[in-house]
Design goal:
mainly alpha, 70% helix, globular
């Protein structure tokens, strides 16, 4: 796929910025021994709220979800920042963000006890960042500036 230098740099910056966001969010959760997703999950009001609330109430499931969320954010963030398995980590990041969106959708009439970053009508930052990851998943942004380029070169030589 031929893209201009400006497009390539723009995709690179988008990938690194989203990667940093994921990595940072993951690290602050990993480094805080008291962090849990229980509060977030228990106040779910979306279509699948029963599932999210059941996870919050089940200690073993909650521990598994906490672990997967913390380390998923870290690994996805590192992968995006390094441009390593970019398509895979873009898709996994998109799935994670859509789960956040489904747990607490910004629909009119739904109010949450947690702090939100504004009043939205259907579209929030999770949905926007998921759309940006969709964009990264369909462009070879890791092959422009990232380890995906090295993997591509290695597989084409064989």
């Amino acid at each position: 796929m031929n893209i201009s230098k400006t497009q390539s740099v723009s995709l690179f910056l988008l990938r690194v910025f989203i990667g940093w966001h994921f990595l940072y969010e993951g690290l602050i959760k990993v480094l805080n021994p008291d962090w849990t997703s229980a509060g977030f999950l228990s106040q779910s009001k979306g279509l699948f709220s029963g599932i999210f609330q059941a996870i919050a109430e089940n200690t073993s499931m909650l521990h598994a979800v906490n672990f997967l969320n913390q380390w998923g954010l870290v690994i996805i963030g590192l992968g995006l920042m390094l441009g390593l398995f970019t398509r895979l980590f873009s898709i996994l990041g998109m799935v994670l963000l859509l789960l956040y969106y489904l747990a607490t959708p910004p629909f009119p009439g739904l109010e949450y006890n947690m702090a939100t970053e504004g009043s939205y009508l259907v579209v929030n930052k999770n949905l926007i960042e998921a759309a940006a990851l969709l964009l990264l998943s369909v462009f070879p942004s890791g092959e422009q500036y990232g380890f995906d380029l090295l993997l591509k070169k290695k597989t084409t030589k064989q």
